[in-house]
Amino acid sequence: MADKKFNPESLMMSYGYKPELSVGSIKCPIYQTSTFTFPNAEFGKRLFSVAYGLEEAVENEPTGLIYSRLNNPDLQILEERLTLWDNAEEAAVFDSGMAAITTVLLEFLQPGDTLLCSTPTYGGTDHFINHILKKFKIDALFFQAGASEEEIRQIIEDSGKKDSLRLIYIETPANPTNALIDIEMCSKLANEFGGDETCFLAVDNTYMGPIWSNPIDHGADLVLYSATKYIGGHSDLIAGACLGNAEVIRRVKGMRTFLGNMADAWTGWLLMRSLETLKVRMEAQARGAEIVANYLAKHPKIERVYYLGFIDPSHSDYAIYQRQYSSAGAMLSFDIKGGEKEAFTFLNNLKLIKLAVSLGGTESLAQHPFSMTHADVDPETKNRNSVTEKLIRISIGIENGDDLVTDIAQALEKV
Ligand SMILES: *Cc1c(COP(=O)(O)O)cnc(C)c1O
User: What is the pLDDT of residue 105?
Assistant: First the structure.
């Protein structure tokens, strides 16, 4: 732990890895193995006792590996590296963002409990809460991103369920329009409600983390990622992560062991490779986004641009933006003048920017939220969140910003 004084980007190539345990290999090998041999039966017995919580681990006790559903060097080293970015004690990696999210929901909620959730949330999360948690008699309350503390407090009070509130789940900035939620305010509400039991705060930080936002510093208990997005960053894998203190991650890993939804060694290895370039990638993406946002803002065929760099200092989101984020990020949306026809003409004429959902990768991707990522959302909610037929979302990659502008300019000419 002594080398924690270095910045995370300096440690991503070495932290947690001992070359002498892998014949001096400079890089961590892929431990493509399902199981691990024990030096003797006594050692195996002790490992199981600690893994299943029957006995406590003692300080400096030699640790060992059991079976790749429980632990694997590629996952353990990756998890240690992830904690450095988010000031977390521990991390758990999963085979998708949805696996990380659903494991947390299942571990921290039981029948009769109430969940408070921000809207809009990622479609998969929204579906799990509305359709699957319902089957387990877990109720959900919702508030709109942008709601005031008073309005949220009222929703909790009016529900008559304030003492059964066990989890507040938020996604900020909200997809696709970058509406913001105050994490500190939600942490305060979590501390206040829930009766005699703890109410936890979970934050989906996929859009801005871990480089530009660290929710634990603002009171979050659990930070969630679709590592498919910026952390993976090359549009070539599906993975997820959850971070928090040792106690919450012990619980999350306990549930993960029995759901069996951990990432595998190969995905872990790919993610370690991705982490080495995470900061330079995200910084390049943010620079490109700024160039594109400034261009779009002045274009006569564009009505409005949703970009964090454009929040008006007089807007209530501005203070949240300043406190929670160290960059305007690399996700932007805009309203094109017209409707579906104009939006589709634009999308169909892009050359460098690809037409696809997902985000955070090295290549820029554009999509039409109304008919694609948010097709399943009811029309009233879409309207309330400015998800209309004229909205286009772009995830900016690492291409030259001027080339992105050239591509957007020629596609807009066809509209
Ligand atoms: C993509 C995404 C998810 C789901 O992650 P998967 O890796 O696709 O399972 C969850 N939350 C947000 C904000 C996302 O963008």
Answer: 98
Which residues does a 6 A CB cutoff place in the pocket of ligand 1? 96-98, 122, 124, 171, 175, 204, 206, 226, 228-229, 238, 240
For the chain, residues classed under CATH 3.40.640.10 are 46-275
For the domain spanning 278-413, the CATH number is 3.90.1150.10
Q: Whose CA is nearest to atom 11 of ligand 1?
A: 122
- Asked if 404 and 352 touch (Cβ cutoff 8 Å), the reply is yes
Determine the atom of ligand 1 nearest the C-alpha atom of 359.
15
**Distances 282 to 4, 99, 226 between C-alpha atoms, Å:** 22, 24, 15
What's the pLDDT tens digit per position in 160-208?
999 999 999 999 998 887 889 999 999 999 999 988 899 999 999 999 9
Q: Give residue 226 CA to ligand 1 midpoint distance, Å.
A: 4
Smallest CA-to-CA distance from 99 within 258, 246, 215 is with 258
* Domain 46-275, classified CATH 3.40.640.10, yes or no: yes
Helix (H) or strand (E) holding 165: strand 165-171
122 Cα: distance to centroid of ligand 1 (angstroms): 7
Residue 290: pLDDT above 70?
A: yes
Cβ neighbours of 326 (radius 10 Å) = 12
Supply the DSSP string of 216-232, one letter for each residue. Answer: GGGT-SEEEEETTTTTT
**54 pLDDT above the threshold of 90:** no
Instruction: Report pTM.
Output: 0.96
Residues sharing a CB contact under 8 Å with residue 113, sequence separation 6 or more, in sequence order: 138, 139, 164, 165, 166, 167
Residues 16, 27: Cα–Cα separation, whole Å: 12
